[in-house]
């Protein structure tokens, strides 16, 4: 296989490597044409453009292993890519033209669903929604869910430790991974696809590949935990006077409904204003300072009664000014639409600087207060569009800016407040290439040194997704 | 500080080290007298006797760090010890007389309880029960619970990734650890005591210290996740014809009660026979082939009704032959007593070979059947005492033996069946020194190589709990 002349000039790795990859993978497994590789070269938000040497699309774990070995022999770096739905540029190559993008999309099989043992085994290229549907067809629930679930692939979900809407109940993806199959930097395959709920036999090495964004190895398949589908759900929207009241409401809901709560979302008045302006959707509880969306689900009767109790008590205590409880699935979807349109309406409003931060749940009111004051003083003219998963301590603290505002300065202001509350500068989106320098500034040097030691042990030549999460050695 | 003459002879590390440790820690921080160190030299079951050079009892993280540095300079190995309640000999020294036991017991403070943010921060030496009580005093639940909770220390609970009775609902300890403070092999302290439910900023390095039994670093403090206390509970005991019926009952309970189930225990007829014989406790549902204990808890009304529904349906389908639902906390405790007395009554019956195995939940009936046949053929005269956490796939498959039976041969028979079902030879008890050789036989060499690579990266001199989990390099 040879390259067209117009491409050859910006391909750094030897043609010999591309020839060998083509021989091993066949025509369906190798893309070299500009038009074919373009979708893999940039993230979906088009913020992180790169230039791959080529794109490989192996169809089996053995092919992935051979790709890793061939690239290693050639000294070429590999960038694993799933559905390319990440928000931190973790799955796209740099601009050197020398990195090989490894798409897992052709490894899309669901290897098995066990509705009795409550597990699902899928290859890395399986679309999350397809896996969710397979669980549902078996009468079970795969409880990881987020906006990009129709495009995100299981391997990427694992490699980024995806969060989403149900973390308050089911935790991050890490807690749902029972087994992994991984290809290491030397091309060896480690098969830990055990469908066990409990396994304390030796080091739980799979933890190293969850949330490390393909920098330590390539996830090729996973065993995920399923749960029983709750029969009933209850969704409520409440207008609250301020975040402190929302926090009291969180405690009340925990006490009355417990871990049947599967979402506890906080939405600012600014956010709802944007949704009304750009999507024409109006909150049924009015334009409050803040709004809380609670969803709970259980197979026990008494769920709706408990949610009504929460509403009644919150209104009585004046922690809620108004509230509605959805009477149907349709109404629940309408309430969710308010929350789900925030990001899109923010984009229609103009430019913004996004922050995906977390702080201890108890600190959320003080954090919001202090961050607001810091921005008002340090970046006058900006507007805060804050919303997010309050039940996890995760606030998407986005700042609408004008042409004169510098996003890095705003990052520094917001993340400085996050530091003061012992928070995280990336609650769920990961680091990718976007926040590499910031991570190094915000985490203690001892933590960064430990991370580098792990990287050096597992990828001594630095060929797996170099420059992501950690700066190049 | 000098040693009495009768001890000096079996202390290999230089007196200079012990002198320096004494200077740094003071008299309360160093034990050298035979009588003082004896309780630290052997595990509570008295199966793994060792001989420490001395016992250090640091009172702060800084003291732990200095102990690690001093020992490293002297080339002395350290054996971290919590409550010394482990079942695999992971916390006791070898017989060389050269290892320093590092007891965390003096670092016992609870640094904080946050009932709103649902976290508790405790030092490694805090007794688990004390932490549970602190959570309860704040109206919350620390959901890790097991027989030794009155002696086990938080550091050991984390370092062994303890399981216990509520894993089916709340998972292993790993899922409850939000933050850790750790002393590394070079004496540096890494502080990751963040009280965050969600944190995807960089490598989640704390995972390396959970369940690795002190071989990669020393846990000095932890932030643990709390949950709301469920208001209602329901406990039922059912006689079932066989494990296949128990499995159908598990699915029924999942569908009707969902993740409000917090224990689903399977107890063999042999187990109940031992409890009747040695403790005089009789099952209210008769001497069935197998018995299932289900406990569920929720703040929602409808829990008892759902449990009654499960009983009714199971009886109707003949998956249960008889069943009772506890009418009071006292009755629930009586039902639990049947389960809790199994281990003690097994010991009174005579010698046994214990197995702490897990298999995919769906495979439990076939596993029990096959293991029974393999033992009948390969070790005639043995009796199987099987019981355990069926909802986690975890069976304590203990084998009562006579004087002529060899425990290693019985291990090999049982673990061979475990392998055929894709199971684990240690579901919750860990590897310690007890199963080091077996682990190496049952896990794939690629997995063992990966574990060794991690060990070499974090403890290159092999001074942290050498010979535990992994054989000495």
TrEMBL record, chains A, B:
Required co-factors: FAD
Coiled-coil region list: none
Residue stretches making up the FAD-binding PCMH-type domain: 48-229
InterPro entries, A to Z: FAD-bd_oxidored_4_C (IPR004113), FAD-bd_PCMH (IPR016166), FAD-bd_PCMH-like_sf (IPR036318), FAD-bd_PCMH_sub1 (IPR016167), FAD-bd_PCMH_sub2 (IPR016169), FAD-linked_Oxase-like_C (IPR016164), FAD-oxidored/transferase_4 (IPR051264), Oxid_FAD_bind_N (IPR006094)
Annotated SUPFAM superfamilies: FAD-binding/transporter-associated domain-like, FAD-linked oxidases, C-terminal domain
Membrane-crossing segments per the record: none
Name recorded for this polypeptide: 2-hydroxyacid dehydrogenase
Organism, scientific name: Methylobacterium tarhaniae
């Amino acid at each position: 296989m040879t390259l067209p002349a117009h491409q050859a000039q910006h391909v750094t790795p030897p043609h010999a490597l591309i020839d060998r990859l083509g021989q091993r993978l066949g025509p369906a497994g190798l893309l070299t044409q500009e038009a074919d590789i373009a979708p893999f070269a940039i993230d979906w938000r088009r913020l992180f453009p790169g230039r791959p040497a080529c794109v490989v699309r192996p169809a089996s774990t053995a092919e992935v292993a051979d790709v890793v070995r061939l690239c290693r022999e050639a000294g070429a770096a590999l960038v694993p890519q799933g559905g390319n739905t990440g928000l931190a540029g973790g799955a796209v190559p740099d601009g050197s033209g020398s990195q090989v993008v490894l798409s897992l999309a052709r490894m899309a099989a669901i290897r098995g669903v066990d509705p009795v043992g409550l597990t699902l085994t899928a290859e890395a290229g399986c679309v999350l929604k397809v896996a969710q549907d397979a669980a549902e067809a078996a009468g079970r629930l795969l409880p990881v869910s987020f906006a990009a679930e129709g495009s995100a692939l299981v391997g990427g979900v694992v490699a980024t430790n995806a969060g989403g809407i149900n973390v308050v109940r089911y935790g991050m993806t890490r807690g749902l991974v029972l087994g992994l199959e991984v290809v290491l930097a030397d091309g060896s395959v480690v098969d830990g696809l055990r469908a066990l709920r409990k396994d304390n036999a030796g080091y739980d090495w799979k933890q190293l590949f969850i949330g490390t964004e393909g920098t330590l190895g390539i996830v090729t398949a996973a065993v995920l935990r399923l749960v029983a589908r709750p029969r009933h759900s209850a969704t409520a929207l409440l207008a609250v006077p301020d975040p402190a009241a929302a926090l009291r409401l969180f405690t009340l809901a925990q006490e009355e409904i417990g871990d049947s709560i599967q979402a506890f979302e906080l939405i600012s008045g600014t956010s709802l204003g944007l949704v009304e302006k750009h999507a024409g959707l109006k909150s049924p509880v009015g334009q409050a300072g803040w709004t809380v969306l609670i969803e709970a689900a259980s197979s026990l009767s008494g769920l709706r009664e408990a949610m009504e109790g929460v509403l009644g008590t919150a209104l009585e205590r004046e922690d809620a000014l108004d509230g509605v409880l959805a009477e149907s699935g349709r109404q629940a979807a309408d309430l969710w639409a308010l929350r789900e349109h925030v990001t899109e309406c923010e984009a229609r409003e103009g430019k913004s600087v996004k922050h995906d931060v977390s702080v201890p749940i108890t600190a959320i009111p003080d954090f919001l207060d202090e961050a607001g004051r810091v921005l008002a003083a340090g970046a006058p003219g900006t507007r805060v569009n804050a919303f997010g998963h309050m039940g996890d301590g995760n606030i998407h603290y986005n700042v609408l800016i004008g042409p004169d505002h510098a996003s890095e300065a705003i990052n520094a202001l917001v993340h400085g407040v996050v530091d003061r509350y012992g928070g995280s500068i990336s609650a769920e989106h990961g680091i990718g290439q976007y926040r590499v320098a910031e991570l190094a500034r915000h985490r203690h040097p001892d933590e960064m040194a430990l991370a580098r030691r792990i990287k050096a042990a597992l990828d001594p030549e630095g060929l797996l997704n170099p420059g992501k999460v950690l700066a190049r050695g």
